[in-house]
Every structure is written in C-alpha cells, then in structure tokens.
Amino acid sequence: MSSVLRPPATGTEPSGATKYRPVSSHLAIAPPVSVVIPAMNEAENLPYVFKTLPDWIHEVVLVDGSSTDDTVAVARALRPDVKVVEQRGKGKGDALITGFQACTGDIIVMVDADGSADGQEIVSYVSALVSGADFAKGSRFANGGGTDDMTFIRRVGNAALCAAVNRKFGARYTDLCYGYNAFWRHCLDKIDLDCTGFEVETLMNIRVVTAGLRVQEIPSHEYLRIHGVSNLRAVRDGLRVLRVILRERANRRAPRGGRDRSPVPGAVPARPARQARQARQVRRKAS
Q1: What's this model's pTM, rounded to 2 decimal places?
Q2: Measured between alpha carbons, how far is 235 from 240 in angstroms, rounded to an integer?
Q3: Percent of the chain beyond pLDDT 90?
Q4: Judging by beta carbons within 10 Å of its beta carbon (0-12, 13-18, 19+), is residue 210 exposed, middle or buried?
Q5: Which residues contact 270 (CB under 8 A, 6 or more apart)?
Q6: Which of 15, 46, 135, 194 could form a disulfide with 183 if both were Cys (CB 3.0 to 4.6 A apart)?
Q7: Composition bias, kind Basic and acidic residues: at what positions (predicted)?
C-alpha cells in the first residue's frame, strides 16, 4: 500500500484545511501546522531560523517580547505573512502561551529563535502526530539526537531532573528541559499551562503524562546559538524546574488525601465488618 495520502473527494476536506500539503515524496498532510517562535532581540538570528522552516507550514506566529532591535521588521521582511503578536507579560512560558492562543493551525510546533533548532526536523514531529501521537517531544539524548550547547552542569542537572519526573510521574523521557516540541491543538485543553519562565517545557512534559496523552520522543540535534547571549541560567532555572516538579507531585497526591467521603445520593451505605459477618451467618442458617 502506498504511504502517500491522496486528496479526499470534493466536500470531504478536513476541518481547517482546503487541500493536502506535500511534506515529502512519501507524505502529505491535511492538518494546518502553526509554528510559534518566541523572540526578544533576535533580529540577527531570524534569517537562519526562517530559512530552515519548511514551505508547507500553515503559519508562523512570532511572539515579540518588547524587542529593542529590528526583530519584528526582519521577521516581516523575511516572511510577509508572519503573524506578529506582542507579548504583554514576561518570560518564555508567558510568550509561548500568548503564541498558542494566536495559532489557527491544528498542529502547533514550538521553535526557539536563537538558531539552535533545525526547522527541517519539523517533518519528523508532524509525522509522529499524524501517525497517532498527541505530543511529539524533542529529545537531544534519544538515539539519533545530540547537542552542541550543553555544559557539564546543565547535562547533570537535566539528567537528575529527568530521572525525578520519570520516577514520580511514570514517564520514560530521555530529555526534560528542551523547547523543541509539537502537539495537536486539543492538548492545550488538557494541560492548562500556568507558568511564565523556562520551566514551561517541564510543566508541559509532566502534564501530558498525567493527562494520559500519547507521547512520542523525536531525536533532535541542538546547535549553538548563532548570535547573542542566552537568558538561561542553569542554577536559577534548574531550581524553578525543581519547584514545578514538587508542586505537580503535591497536586497529584492531594485528591487522594482530600477525597470527598460524603454519602452519594441514592448509594447504599457500607456496613461495618461485624454486621456483614452476622448477616452472612443469618443467611446460611436460613438456607
């Protein structure tokens, strides 16, 4: 059987799409794909980022964090149809949440604006989603992945935090703090993002697991930032990630201890064990 998806009959197009988009010689998709790029003073990096984006994506949503350089002007020059959204809050988490709200595609892809991610990998993420996954999670440490931008401290911290999430939430991740991910838009209704900083990726990874969503890791290579300096601080942001893990673990356990034990209307109250034994004895004697 051929793996090429053929256009549906007239009048049966999927919601939100007017035609199938060729992705490769063996794959075509109908769901429109939105790419969200949070950026602040990334004018020098955007030409590299935009150059790697596939031409079949539906839209690019650039979330501008009050840049003081030509980030917005460069984005519009590179891609006239880019959707620029002004970030009103602060932090990467806030920027991503703002961008997600502006997306119109059925599939959403998160891409950093520093040039560390290869946009050509998007096809792997989308392929995983159309094959049945709900959340395609990038991993630098899965077989086939890699990184050029990982200090020893960050590597050890990421491994320790990843192990904690795997143990506490039953996940099987090989990477935790990586921002290259893709998911179906409906996932946002189940994970309810509510953080503003770099820990947003960890929060997403935890909540997709606790929500029972189907996750597939995608091997990804992280390159060095091309221009500028990262705002990431290993110790500070590592502690924020740890706080998220502890908070989510506490929230997950809370319903068990605080379960409502009030009687359910119409339910038969449970009898003490002694009364139950006496009732069984009476039934046996009667028979």
Answers
A1: 0.80
A2: 9
A3: 65
A4: middle
A5: none
A6: 135
A7: 252-262
